[in-house]
TrEMBL record, chain A:
GO terms for biological process: glutathione metabolic process. Its EC number is 2.5.1.18. One of its GO terms (cellular component) is cytosol. PANTHER family: GLUTATHIONE S-TRANSFERASE GSTU1-RELATED, GLUTATHIONE S-TRANSFERASE, GST, SUPERFAMILY, GST DOMAIN CONTAINING. This is Glutathione S-transferase. Conjugation of reduced glutathione to a wide number of exogenous and endogenous hydrophobic electrophiles. Is involved in the conjugation of reduced glutathione to a wide number of exogenous and endogenous hydrophobic electrophiles. Belongs to the GST superfamily. It is found in: Cytoplasm, Cytosol. It is an enzyme of class 2 (transferase).
Automatic annotation (TrEMBL), chain B:
GO terms for molecular function: glutathione transferase activity. It comes from Aegilops tauschii subsp. strangulata (Goatgrass). It comes from the Eukaryota. CDD domains: GST_C_Tau (cd03185), GST_N_Tau (cd03058). Residues 41-121 form the GST N-terminal domain. It is an enzyme of class 2 (transferase). This is glutathione transferase. One of its GO terms (biological process) is glutathione metabolic process. SUPFAM superfamilies: GST C-terminal domain-like, Thioredoxin-like. It catalyses: RX + glutathione = an S-substituted glutathione + a halide anion + H(+). InterPro entries: Glutathione-S-Trfase_C-like, Glutathione-S-Trfase_C_sf, Glutathione_S-Trfase, Glutathione_S-Trfase_N, GST_C, GST_C_Tau, Omega/Tau-like, Thioredoxin-like_sf.
């Protein structure tokens, strides 16, 4: 199946040290190839230079015992296992990496106010982008038009928050950048379903997306916009949506 | 008293609601540090009477021994210019104003308070325990959010969808019950992030249960949570910023009446 091919490609692109199981740091990531939430963790691990074992969960086939044991409450990926102990929820995992590996490059700034702002915008991305995007490709007619209007508003708000900085983190790629970068692969699909052009609606975000794509951590973690668009097609078939 | 202030001044920009009190934790250095913080930058909390989320920054500041000014908004009708300026994205309370900085989103505010001020820790020091605390705080915000409060407010235990709602709510409460593990608080011996996140269950749930007649948090099913609710509501610092039960019931009853009236009109 197309998914198995993706899985193999992903494993081939695993940045872990050759031959090392779980890396020297005892990190295992339960993930799903196209998940933007899982990709956040892959990006953060790469930015921090932390080796890990990537373990694909074939979510299209169901939820494995391993996943249900690791995340009994939400039964979702990503899950980061550190020496066998699970950490769940992508932004919580990112903050865990900050706390547990203080010598690795930090994604969050050290100033409390700057940290609060970073958390605010990562939380905003979390609350808004994926759900609104899903409604964009799931719905038709008036509800879809509403989702479209919301998506434009979200992108314009983020455009304003970014401003003239190269990254949300300022000069450096940071927490919000890692949280939002995976969605750059979904912009193409949002544009097609929402019938808008990102450079017109949110030019700074469009430029930022290109900048992110030039980073190795992002390039190695994301799949092409076309593959994401095809995946959405697969989901629609699965849910019986025309 | 705080309750009198809330009734007399329903509008914004109340300069007279400055709270001053002696921090429960003694220690000369702690007092001096916080005194310096107090003298250097004013701390204000924008909230509204009976706000579940507004309670969180208040209790966090009191736990740290930080004096603050409380600015009460007349919501949902009259959002002040100050609110719209300091929370343009969500236009909601609470907002923490610290000097010229504004911080929004209640749990983000609590983490900011923990990092910006000296005093007892609100989050644990250990990275894995911090991740666990954040997980359960987020769980509470996901499972006991607006839909939960709306449902419990309107519930009378009859219809099938209400039965499903109650079943789901009990499942989630059981998960929280399991997290107490014989401790006084989710944070162990002292109030922490998860306790602050769960505070809605310590006062507001009782008020909603009284209005709907549905008893969700029973002693038989949730002994640890019931004990916790009493501990939390009885804590010196939490007590001072929890709304009075009768006033809360009155406010929610009024909101429910309005909501039902609107629903009738729409029919």
């Amino acid at each position: 199946t197309a998914c198995t091919t993706q899985t193999q490609t992903q494993i081939d692109r695993d940045p872990k040290q050759p031959g090392a199981m779980a890396g020297e740091k005892g990190l295992v990531l339960l993930d799903f190839w196209v998940s933007p939430f899982g990709q956040r963790v892959r990006i953060a691990l790469a930015e921090k230079g932390l080796p890990y074992e990537y373990a694909e969960e074939d979510l299209m086939a169901g939820k494995s015992d391993r996943l249900l044991r690791a995340n009994p409450v939400h039964k979702k990926i990503p899950v980061l296992l550190h020496d066998g102990r699970p950490v769940n929820e992508s932004l919580i995992i990112l903050q865990y990496l900050e706390d547990a590996f203080p010598d690795a490059p930090a994604l969050l700034p050290s100033d409390p106010y700057a940290r609060a702002q970073a958390r605010f915008w990562a939380d905003y991305v979390d609350k808004k982008v994926y759900d609104c995007g899903s409604r964009l490709w799931k719905l038709k007619g008036e509800p879809q038009a509403q989702a479209r209007a919301e998506m434009l508003d979200i992108l314009k708000t983020l455009d304003g928050a970014l401003g003239d900085k190269p990254f949300f983190g300022g000069d450096k790629f940071g927490f919000v950048d890692a949280a939002f970068a995976p969605f750059t692969a979904w912009f193409h699909s949002y544009e097609r379903y929402g019938e808008f052009s990102l450079p017109e609606v949110a030019p700074k975000i469009a430029a930022w997306a290109k900048r992110c794509g030039e980073r190795e951590s992002v390039a190695k973690s994301l799949y092409s916009p076309d593959k994401v668009y095809d995946f959405i097609g697969l989901l629609k078939k699965k849910y019986g949506i025309e | 008293s705080r309750e009198d202030t809330a009734t007399k001044h329903p509008l914004t920009h109340i300069n007279s609601t400055t709270h001053s009190y002696q921090p429960a934790v003694t220690g000369f250095e702690f007092k001096v540090q916080n005194l310096e913080a107090k003298m250097s930058e004013t701390v204000k909390v924008m909230s509204t009477f009976g706000s579940i989320y507004g309670h969180r920054p208040e209790v966090a500041l009191r736990l740290k021994g930080i004096p603050y000014e409380l600015l009460l908004e007349d919501l949902p009708n009259n959002k002040s210019e100050l609110l719209l300026t300091h929370n343009p994205v969500h236009k909601l309370v609470p907002v923490l104003l610290h000097g010229d900085k504004s911080i929004c989103e209640s749990l983000i505010i609590v983490e900011y308070i923990d990092e910006a001020f000296e005093g007892p820790r609100l989050l644990p020091a250990d990275p894995y325990e911090r991740a666990t605390a954040r997980f359960w705080a987020q769980f509470i915000d996901q499972k006991f959010a607006r839909p939960f409060w709306m449902s419990i407010c309107m519930a009378d235990g009859d219809k099938e969808e209400e039965e499903n709602f109650l079943k789901e709510a009990k499942k989630n409460l059981l998960l929280l019950e399991g997290q107490l593990k014989g401790n006084r608080f989710f944070g162990g011996n002292s109030i922490g992030l998860v306790d602050i996140a769960a505070s809605g269950l310590a006062r507001w749930l009782g008020a909603f249960e009284e209005i709907s007649g549905v008893n969700l948090l029973t002693d038989e099913q949730f002994p640890a949570l019931c004990r916790w609710a009493k501990e939390y509501a009885g804590d010196e610092r939490a007590k001072e910023c929890l709304p009075n039960m009768d006033e809360l019931v009155a406010k929610i009853t009024a909101v429910k009446k309005k909501f039902l009236a609107m629903a009738e009109v729409q029919k």
